[in-house]
Amino acid sequence: MEGTIRLLGRPSIEYDGVPVRPPRGRKSWALLGYVLLAERPPARKRLAELLFADAEDPLGALRWTLAELRRALGVREALSGDPVMVSLAGVMAVDVLQVLNAPDPEQLLAVDGELLEGVELESCPDFESWLMVERQRVASAVEARLREAAVGLVAAGRARDAIPFASKAVASNPLEQGNHELLVRSLAVSGDRPAALRQIAVCEDVLRRELGVEASAALRQASAVDREPSLEVVGSRATASSSFEAGRAAVAAGVVESGLECLRRAVSEAARCGDTELQGRALVALGGALVHAIRGRDEEGAITLQEAILVAERAGDRATVVAAYRELGFVEVQAGRRATAESWLAKAAKLAETDEENAAILGVRGMNSSDLADYPAALRQLEESVDLAARCGDPRQQAWSLSILGRAHLLRGEYSQARAAIVRSLELVRQQRWVAFMPWPQALQAELDLYAGRVGAAAEGFEQAWALGCQVNDPCWEGISARGLGLLAAERGDYQGVVHWLDQAVRRASREPDRYQWVHAHVLDTAAATALDHGDLVRARPLAGQLAALAARCDMRELVVRAELHLGRLGDPQAVHSARRMAAGIDNPSLTALLEDR
Question: Is the full-model pTM beyond 0.70?
């Protein structure tokens, strides 16, 4: 008989599709879900504290519940030992693990309901905090896999098959414009333009009603599926190659629209003359430009990059496949979709051969680890990326990885190490005249100046970063520099300035659908903290709530902890305890000190 534990929707245990008598009590389901989804086997003492603290004999209550679960499962050796081991491999499947890990995306379409639906334990606030975060994490992971399946199908020329996956992604998270955009593109490419236009209207109304914002231009652009170049050209390798080089040069020089047109022409011409290797390289360059050089186009960029993989694999072009995998990983890191990000980056690392390739992959992996708050991994990956980039003579990659390394040290309160990395990053950025990237290390250096008491230097740095961020029209740079100007106003005792700049920061950092979610959350954290420092509870409460939901959904563990601390300051008596539990695996001296202060 085949057994299945269903944790998505109303929990149940089935054999050959037939439900068996369930274990008694909601705490049985809570215990089963916690043990199955824990990163490592939990100790009995921890489980007793989590779920049975109000019992006369917490460990006895735990023993009884484990026995009840073994009876319901029909597996005598399951859920035994200390720590408690699952021991169900090869005996019973778990639906949530199947959905997240199985190669067949069709299973995603059957997902219905949230994790442990109906299992609410008001008497166990620590468990409730865990469940809230885990529900968000699982929902986000399912959404990410739905999107991945839809993008892959569109890229493979099967847009009609992509529609159910994109539709379910919209249903799971209707406030995410990127999901609507993916559905619009799937409908338009499949030939149903009227349905695509109806979906645009639905999205515009939802965003306006629920969030009070207008949809970006990328939503309507998704319905225009003719990506052929506007100029008539003769199909030849020479034309394709010259268009490819001209497009890359134009994008690098900041003439983005012209560069995109040249790259699209290169793709088209390479396809006409049958040069699949050049076609794949042009598709990667086009996808990378859509992701990095112009905001709001990550959805189109991801589809283009998956097209590049299909073409490059046919051509046997390993390097192009590696580049496309890495860029897709970067898209997922920015969006806070950790599992799919790591999946793409692992594929890239497996195929990578050169120092240049490994430096770039490790840089993105270090960014992902830092956002996740796995600082030991982040520091190791970023330091290796910097070393490899220096060895192979790639100053831009070196500058990029140094900036992320500096940010990790800054978050850990290691200001001297942060300054060394960021100063070197800025030196390289200036040498390369990399104006489009400069606001990021400028803002980080200005924050270090502020903490060192050099208020004048901090003001100059934040103002330069803000002006340049606005000039290059990058919402991440605008958000991070406006946050800095808010911190500067707080240092000067100007709360009106704090509110002005942090409102700007929140608005700017979140204005595009393909925003960098860590920057968005980081800004929300600062806005909530400064409001609480000034006793402005009315302002702090919604900011802390937004941060808690966003950080949980995007698996930004330190920011989940910080959100709990804000909620504790707002009067939640259990929030600080939950924050301490959630912070147990995070190696950050600054966070440890903050928890001790609370």
Answer: yes
